[in-house]
Write a structure and sequence with these properties.
The chain has about 250 residues and is α/β, with parallel strands linked by helices. Helices cover about 40% and strands about 20% of the residues. The protein has a seven-stranded mixed beta sheet, sandwiched between helices. β1, α3 and β2 form a beta-alpha-beta unit. The longest helix has 14 residues. Keywords: Methyltransferase, S-adenosyl-L-methionine, Transferase.
Length: about 250
């Protein structure tokens, strides 16, 4: 079991309980304007929040296939699917940056909601391009580089104790970066919509634990006191956990 797989297995039982996750996924599907009857791949589906929204949008004639590396996430997705009453979704364990289980030009649409920070952007875009039909749609959401503030401060504090940590959104977390990456992978970007996902503030200690457990970050216990002191400066800022985001809609050339 890979590191990310284990991490998401542990998160699976509570992932779908956060209302902002649901709204974030539904907004992506809304902006994608999926044609009825489409065949849709939901890459890194998690608990299937975008898959459920997509299945409702395309109607019973279409089909959504949700893939994820985490068996735990997929188990939770199946629970939510059973409650939904929808019959046009199936889930499959697969690496969203490889998709070797699927033939070229298999889907009309590829979605990826909120997961690109955990993926190798180049590999993911190449895999998505391969499984899309000519002219097929790619729609993904991406947190802006440098956010949320709590994660940026973690990286800054880690660097101050001699441990450089890369921003996982550097490859896709701006309009220019997403356009360049998509063009390089063979997509034409139709539009990019900027928004902010509002999230409730959390105590500094909880934000430290969240960053320290993140599989994208190294262990830097020496930075903890520094981090807590820095985050105390934001104690009265209700927007500390908000996420400026991009919704990117592109087409396979």
């Amino acid at each position: 079991m890979g590191l990310n797989e284990s991490y998401f297995d542990q998160r699976a039982s509570t992932y779908g309980d956060l209302s902002w996750h649901v709204g974030y996924a539904e907004r992506l599907v809304e902006l994608a304007e999926l044609p009825p009857g489409s065949s849709v791949l939901d890459a890194a589906t998690g608990t299937g929040l975008a898959a459920l929204a997509a299945a409702r949008a395309i109607g019973p004639v279409g089909e959504v296939v949700g893939v994820d590396i985490s068996a735990g996430m997929l188990r939770e997705a199946e629970v939510l699917l059973a409650k939904s009453g929808l019959g046009n979704i199936r889930y499959q364990k697969a690496d969203a940056t490889a998709l070797v289980e699927f033939s070229p030009e298999s889907f009309d649409v590829v979605l990826c909601s909120s997961s690109v920070l955990y993926l190798d952007a180049g590999r993911a875009l190449a895999a998505w391009h391969r499984v899309l039909k000519p002219g097929g749609m790619l729609a993904y959401s991406a947190m802006r580089a440098g956010f949320p503030v709590s994660s940026r401060v973690f990286r800054e504090c880690a660097a101050e104790v001699g441990v450089p940590v890369a921003d996982p959104m550097a490859a896709l977390g701006s309009e220019r970066a997403s356009r360049d990456a998509c063009e390089k992978a063979g997509f034409r970007v139709d539009r990019i919509v900027s928004d902010v996902v509002r999230r409730p503030p959390l105590p500094a200690a909880e934000l430290w634990r969240s960053n320290a457990r993140n599989p994208l970050n190294p262990e830097v216990p020496a930075a903890e006191a520094r981090y807590l002191a820095r985050m105390a400066e934001f104690a009265d800022d209700p927007s500390i956990c908000d996420m400026p985001v991009l919704f990117v809609i592109a087409r396979k050339k």
